[in-house]
Amino acid sequence: MIIFGVTGWKNNGKTTLVERLVTEITARGYVVSTIKHAHHAFDVDHKGRDSYRHREAGAQEVLVGSGTRWALIHELRGAPEPTMDELLARLSPCDLVLVEGYKRGPHPKIEAYRAEAGEDLIARDDDTIRLIATDTPLDIDREQLGLDDISAIADFVLRDVGLS
Hints:
Elements: E1 3-7, H1 14-27, E2 32-36, H2 50-56, E3 61-65, E4 70-74, H3 84-88, E5 96-100, E6 109-113, E7 129-134, E8 143-146, H4 150-160
Parallel strand pairs: 1-5, 1-6, 2-5, 6-7, 7-8
Antiparallel strand pairs: 3-4
Helix pairs in contact: 1-4
């Protein structure tokens, strides 16, 4: 499975960049999946819903299916967080997986960077970052593209992973 990451500190535009890349790359005919790392507990169902009630009753996995989509909810119940490779193994085949987060993973990445966020560049200490998508020119020996130049960023990703 071909993976490419989007990383960066909070409020630097990671999610917007992933969203726009998915739109651009799927419009070019590729099948794209995503993995998003969350640093906190999250819920995909809500209190009172049947799936929530099944989970709260103790089910380890709850699969909800319809004519439109299906979702599998897996409760860890104290087990260790799965690795990115374990999560990738659960995905259906696709052309490209865009990974948001997983800063320390060995996969190639883009760093989303906004000057106003005031954070240090991750790329200064991370050679897995192949491109910086930025809103301002930076003094670093790494390729840079405008954060809003989605077509050029998509070209870079597809070329880097050998899909163009």
